[in-house]
Design a protein that fits this description.
The protein is 51% helix and 18% strand. It is of the alpha/beta class and 239 residues long. The strands form 2 sheets. The chain has a 5-stranded mixed β-sheet with strand order 6-5-4-7-8, with helices on both faces. Strands 1-3-2 form a 3-stranded mixed β-sheet, with no helix packed on it. Strand 2 and strand 3 form a beta hairpin. The protein starts with a helix and ends with a helix.
């Protein structure tokens, strides 16, 4: 009987031990297993986001697809003037600013010139296409156009230019565009009417001799004149 009781007590003690072990057992947690990988990742992130300082006239931060930041800052002349306003720094700043402004002026002048060239070319092509298609709808109602083609060194062209200038001053309802060959841009600025480089426009109108005039009146009638033409004859085509 005692043997049975002892065996029962041993069995119960083993059962209690197993229950306690199962209840309070935890898996091992390693808090330092990913330390190196985490530090490497943080280092790469810092490298991507580290700022590269570049001195430029155009101050603007740029973020690359990789996340790297490049910070553009004003040049030394500007920073020195802002930090210490002395006459020497002011002169250096003004020199930098004038250089920068000149770039804007040159860029704006080029844009203005190209815009005028494109506008004139587009208008000439539109009117030329209307004459080829023989349609009455492409020329705006009530619009009057005069395209004048001139060549430098042509005495008749110089005489014709004075007539065109007279028409420009006395008949503002007629839109005048002149296209020149052999002239410099500065020389073209001396004309009172709008004058620009030919750039192939004369070939669109099949100009063979100079001076030449293309007339598009408000009734959508089209005329091509070669050689010198007096003012009265030109104006008669717009009536």
């Amino acid at each position: 009987m005692k043997r049975i009781i002892v065996m029962l007590m041993i069995f119960l003690s083993h059962l209690a031990y197993a229950y306690a072990q199962n209840t309070f057992q935890y898996e091992r947690i390693d808090f330092f297993s990913n330390t190196e990988a985490q530090e490497k990742q943080e280092s790469e992130t810092e490298d991507k986001q580290s700022a590269e300082i570049i001195i430029s006239e155009w101050a603007e931060p740029i973020i690359s697809p990789s996340g790297r930041v490049s910070v553009y800052v004003p040049p030394k002349e500007v920073r020195d003037f802002l930090e210490e306003s002395t006459p020497e720094n002011a002169r250096a700043y003004l020199a930098w600013n004038l250089k920068r402004i000149k770039k804007f002026i040159l860029a704006q002048e080029l844009l203005r010139k190209e815009t005028k060239e494109l506008t004139a070319t587009k208008g000439a092509k539109t009117l030329l296409e209307s004459s080829i298609k023989d349609t009455q709808t492409n020329v705006p109602v009530g619009a009057s156009y005069l395209f004048y083609f001139m060549l430098k060194g042509c005495s008749s062209c110089e005489k014709q230019a004075r007539v065109i200038e007279d028409i420009y001053l006395t008949h503002p309802e007629i839109r005048i565009e002149a296209f020149a060959k052999g002239y410099s841009d500065r020389e073209l600025e001396n004309f009172r009417f709008s004058a620009r480089q030919d750039n192939g426009i004369s070939s669109l109108f099949k100009v063979k001799s100079y001076p030449a005039i293309a007339v598009f009146n408000k009734r959508s009638q089209r005329y091509m004149l070669s050689g010198f033409v007096d003012k009265e004859r030109i104006l008669s085509l717009f009536k």
